[in-house]
From TrEMBL:
Subcellular location: Cytoplasm
Alphabetic keyword roster: Aminotransferase, Cytoplasm, Glutamine amidotransferase, Repeat, Transferase
GO molecular function: carbohydrate derivative binding; glutamine-fructose-6-phosphate transaminase (isomerizing) activity
HAMAP family for this protein: GlmS (MF_00164)
GO terms (BP aspect): amino sugar biosynthetic process; carbohydrate metabolic process; fructose 6-phosphate metabolic process; protein N-linked glycosylation; UDP-N-acetylglucosamine metabolic process
Gene name of the encoded protein: glmS
Catalytic site positions: C2, K609
Gene Ontology cellular component terms for the protein in this record: cytosol
Keyword check for Repeat: yes
Function: Catalyzes the first step in hexosamine metabolism, converting fructose-6P into glucosamine-6P using glutamine as a nitrogen source.
Catalytic class of the enzyme: transferase
Highest rank taxon of the organism: Bacteria
Source organism of this protein record: Candidatus Avipropionibacterium avicola
Protein name, UniProt field: Glutamine--fructose-6-phosphate aminotransferase [isomerizing]
Length: 614
């Protein structure tokens, strides 16, 4: 989950690398460091804590000029977040510096091997093992690129390695396995990084790196090979967003900016998805219509907020396409010996496209001959490349760790998939599908309406700033939204928050109800079978026991309003699409409550944006 930057070119590499690390700090903020090769040795500065600590240390002890540099912002796995464990790590002879994202699973046996060879690691990290292996290899007379090809196959697990050699100060060498790495292509300069955000201020031209590839960059060249030294496939692409998209735009938090970008993000996800007659056209799919018609089971795999988007997808896909659909945590999928095969469509949802659990799950599914369709936001990501088909959400960069626009656009992509399958299989008439597509087209306006009418949410956050426990209830598609609302509070405010299916209330959770306990309830639209009546009954049950009911209900619903301690009004939408408007007040509430409690909303403790290790 760590952030990595490497640079070769005429600029001051320290300035370039540190600026890149600032834009990658969402990936980890336990420590940060930078290293440059100069005067025949490595010079580095690294500090525990936020990047501001690194910047202060660099101001006090500037690094010398160089033609290359590497840097790292860490989310701790092996070893506590202290200076000693911060990256870059430097070999005992001072020749090689290395930064690393991922986990080297066989680090203990490799450490024993090094110790037997007289090398004494000084940190607690698995990363230091790799730098000593590289140093031992180059000491034998080979260059750093060849050394990387020798060392990388010996490492088990997921990793991105980026290294510099003091004897070759104008070169950066990197390798990747199951961990993100992209190359930025500039004019007389080149970059490597975990994410294009690190170099977007300098270039929007990038190169995808494949699995088990090694890249060597200088100011003028990029060489990509596999681990055997054979030329690797180079797949350039253009980044379709700019630096301004990664800045806060006047908001106090990236998260708040991204919440307010959701109408635009939804519109981008829908752009070009249907023809003038309302028929869906998903050009990104690389699975034939014939194969999709033969699918008899869908399995959605995801983690965190993406998992809740998958839960909504189940309701939509089964209702519209009439295909049995399961939703599974990606971290559990391959460990239960799942039954999948050629007629199974596995739908993998990941904002970053690099989520390690989800990546391992899709590889397992493909090994069982299942077809894989991914829904992700990041062009060129590993999950997108390794899937048979992809629906890109086009939400733009999401910097805040807690997902907002990423989640909403995943919902939209799931709806598009469900409708497309219904269109192919003939389970819905064309005019029915066109009507839902038309309603989706109105969603940006509906979400903007919720954002414009957020005063009650702000006031509520002020009133509940001292709360230590908050519950969320929902039925049907409101249930995953209750789960998402609770997750946002846990992520940002660090308080006890739980989401429950409202129908399960009397099966245990009602014992938690006490006087003045805040309970958010997502009420389905009126007229949806018996759902509305049943949820109103649930509200009456908890209010009778002293709960403070915060009711999210559509405008013009006097029955739900009559039982609300606080009413949050939602635009009128159909039941299956209600999550798009219902989740927005919960996002705003979590953001505002955490702000009032003095928390860092964009960098919640112990969390990172992209979970690139299992």
């Amino acid at each position: 989950m760590c952030g990595i930057v490497g640079y070769c070119g005429p600029r001051d590499p320290v300035d370039v690398v540190v600026a890149g690390l600032r834009r990658l700090e969402y990936r980890g903020y336990d420590s940060a460091g930078v290293a440059v090769p100069a005067d025949g040795r490595i010079r580095e500065v690294k500090k525990a804590g936020r990047i501001a600590n690194l910047e202060a240390a660099l101001a006090a002890d500037p690094l010398p000029s160089s033609g290359a540099g590497i840097g790292h912002t860490r989310w701790a796995t092996h070893g506590a977040p202290v200076d000693l464990n911060a990256h870059p790590h430097v070999s005992a002879d001072g020749r090689i510096a290395l930064v690393h994202n991922g986990i080297v699973e066989n680090w203990a046996s490799l450490r024993t091997e090094l110790e037997a060879d007289g090398v004494a690691p000084v940190s607690e990290t698995d990363t230091e093992i790799a730098v000593h292996l590289l140093a031992r290899a180059v000491a034998g007379g080979i260059d750093l690129t060849t050394a990387m090809r020798q060392v990388a196959p010996r490492l088990e697990g997921a990793f991105t390695l980026v290294a510099v050699d003091a004897h070759d100060p104008g070169t950066v060498v990197a390798a990747r396995r199951n961990s993100p790495l992209v190359v930025g292509v500039g004019q007389g300069e080149h970059f490597v990084a975990s994410d294009v955000a690190a170099f977007i201020a300098h270039t929007r031209e990038a190169i995808e790196l494949g699995q088990d590839q090694v890249v060597t960059i200088t100011a003028d060249t990029v060489e990509v090979t596999d681990l055997d030294g054979a030329p690797g496939e180079v797949r350039p692409y253009h980044v379709d967003w700019d630096l301004a998209a990664a800045e806060k735009g006047g908001h106090d938090w990236f998260m708040r900016k991204e919440i307010h970008e959701q109408p635009e993000a939804i519109a981008h996800t829908l752009l070009g998805r249907h023809d003038v007659d309302g028929r869906l056209v998903l050009d990104e799919l690389r699975i034939s219509e014939e194969e999709l018609r033969l699918v008899d089971t869908i399995v959605v795999i995801a983690c965190g907020s993406s998992f809740y988007a998958g839960m909504v997808a189940k309701y939509a896909i089964e209702h519209w396409a009439r295909i049995p659909c399961e939703v599974e945590l990606a971290s559990e999928f391959r460990y239960r010996d799942p039954i999948v095969g050629p007629r199974t469509l596995v739908v993998a949802i990941s904002q970053s496209g690099e989520t390690a659990d989800t990546l391992m799950a899709i590889r397992h599914a493909r090994a069982q001959q299942a077809r894989v369709l991914s829904i992700c936001n990041t062009n060129g990501s590993t999950i997108a490349r390794e899937s048979d088909a992809v629906i890109h959400t086009h939400a733009g960069p999401e910097i805040g760790v807690a997902s907002t626009k990423g989640f909403l656009t995943q919902l939209v992509a799931c709806y598009l998939l469900g409708l497309y399958l219904a269109q192919l299989r003939g389970t819905k008439f064309d005019d029915e599908i066109a009507a839902v597509v038309a309603e989706l087209e109105r969603m940006p306006v509906m979400v903007q309406q919720v954002l414009d009418d957020h005063g009650v949410v702000t006031e509520l956050a002020a009133e509940l700033a001292g709360a230590r426990s908050i519950l969320f209830l929902g039925r049907h598609v409101g249930y995953p939204i209750a789960l998402e609302g609770a997750l946002k509070l846990k992520e940002l405010a660090y308080i006890h928050a739980e989401g429950f299916a409202a129908g399960e209330l009397k099966h245990g959770p009602i014992a938690l109800i006490e006087q003045d306990l805040p309970v958010f309830v997502v009420v389905p639209p009126q007229g949806r079978d018996q759902l509305h009546t049943k949820v109103v009954s649930n509200i009456q049950e908890i209010r009778a026991r002293g709960a403070r009911t915060v009711v999210l209900a559509e405008e013009g619903d006097p029955i739900a309003a009559a039982h609300a301690s606080v009413l949050i009004t939602l635009p009128k939408v159909s039941t299956l699409l209600q999550p798009l408007v219902a989740v927005v007040p919960l996002q705003l509430f979590a953001c505002e409550l955490a702000t009032r409690q003095g928390h860092d909303v964009d960098h919640p403790r112990n969390l990172a944006k992209s979970v690139t290790v299992e």
